[in-house]
Design goal:
The protein has about 260 residues and is α/β, with parallel strands linked by helices. It contains ten helices and ten strands. It has a single domain, classed as NADP-dependent oxidoreductase domain (TIM Barrel, Alpha-Beta Barrel), CATH 3.20.20. It is about 35% helix and about 20% strand.
C-alpha cells in the first residue's frame, strides 16, 4: 500500500499523521488504546467524557510528545472562559505543555464562534498552549464559508457515503486556505453497516466506510471509534488495502443512497 494513502503531512497541523484517527466513544478499553498508540495511529480526538483515555494518552505523550496530535475542547463552548478552563485542565491531565488542536464541538449547537470565543482561542494559540484551532460542524454551507475565511485551522465534518454533500458544499472551498479536514460519522452511526430492509447488495464493513472517506483527496484523516481491540485491528487491516475504486466505490455510493439518499 502506498505510504501516501496511509500517512499525510498536514500543513495546518505541522505534523505527519496516520490517516485513521482514534476516538474513544464505543467501549475500547485502556489496553486497546495503548495498542493503538503503540502502533501507527497518532491522531487522537479526546472527548472530555473519555476518562479511560487519559492514562494511556498521557503515557504515549511522555514517550514522544511530538509524534502525536491531540485534539480536544469543552463539551459546551459558548464563552471564552470555558475554553481557557478546558485547555488548562487538559494540559494538567495529560502533563503536556500544549494541545495540538483546540476544538469547538458541534458549532452552532453546542458551541459558538463569537468575538469572545475567537479572541480567547487566538490568545491561547499565541501563548503556545494550543497550536491549531478547530471546530466540528454539520452545517455544510457554513463550513464552506469558514473554510474560505475564518481563524479555524481544522474542520471536523460529517462525511460518509450516505452524507456526501461535503463534496459539493465544503471541498470546493478548501483551496484558498487549506484548513485540515477530519471526517466523522464514517459509518453513518452504524446505518451503513445495517442496510435498509430488503436491500439485497448487503452491508459495508467499517473499514470500507473509512476507505470511502480517505479516498477523497480533500480528507486528511477519518476518525474511528472501535468497540474492541479486535475491531481496531480489523479497521487497520482494511484501510491498508488503499483507496476504493471501481466496483467498491460504486457499491458504497449505491448503499449510501439507499441508507439516506444523495444529500
Amino acid at each position: 500500500m502506498p505510504d501516501e494513502f496511509l500517512r499525510r503531512e498536514v500543513p495546518a497541523l505541522k505534523k505527519d499523521v496516520f490517516r485513521l484517527g482514534l476516538a474513544v466513544t464505543h467501549g475500547i478499553d485502556g489496553a486497546g488504546v495503548r495498542e493503538a498508540l503503540a502502533g501507527e495511529m497518532n491522531y487522537v480526538f479526546w472527548n472530555p467524557t473519555a476518562r479511560k483515555l487519559v492514562a494511556p494518552l498521557r503515557e504515549a505523550l511522555r514517550r514522544d510528545r511530538e509524534r502525536f496530535v491531540v485534539s480536544t475542547g469543552p463539551t459546551f463552548g459558548w464563552f471564552g472562559g470555558s475554553l481557557r478552563r478546558r485547555v488548562e485542565a487538559a494540559l494538567r491531565a495529560l502533563n503536556t505543555d500544549y494541545l495540538d488542536v483546540l476544538q469547538l464541538y458541534w458549532l452552532g449547537k453546542m458551541s459558538a464562534l463569537t468575538s469572545g470565543t475567537i479572541e480567547e482561542m487566538v490568545r491561547l494559540r499565541e501563548a503556545g498552549k494550543v497550536r491549531a484551532l478547530g471546530a466540528s460542524i454539520h452545517d455544510r454551507p457554513r463550513a464552506g464559508r469558514l473554510a474560505e475565511d475564518s481563524v479555524l485551522d481544522l474542520l471536523m465534518i460529517r462525511y460518509n457515503a450516505a452524507h456526501p454533500g461535503a463534496e459539493s458544499e465544503i471541498f470546493p472551498h478548501l483551496a484558498r486556505r487549506r484548513p485540515a479536514v477530519v471526517a466523522d460519522t464514517a459509518t453513518c452511526w452504524g446505518k451503513l453497516l445495517r442496510p435498509p430492509r430488503g436491500y439485497s447488495a448487503g452491508p459495508a464493513t467499517a473499514g470500507q466506510c473509512y476507505r470511502f472517506c480517505l479516498s477523497s483527496p480533500h480528507v486528511d484523516l477519518v476518525l474511528c471509534s472501535p468497540g474492541t481491540a479486535g475491531e481496531l485491528r480489523e479497521d487497520l487491516a482494511e484501510v491498508a488495502k488503499g483507496p476504493l475504486a471501481g466496483e467498491e466505490m460504486s457499491f458504497m455510493r449505491a448503499l449510501g443512497r439507499a441508507v439516506h439518499g444523495s444529500r
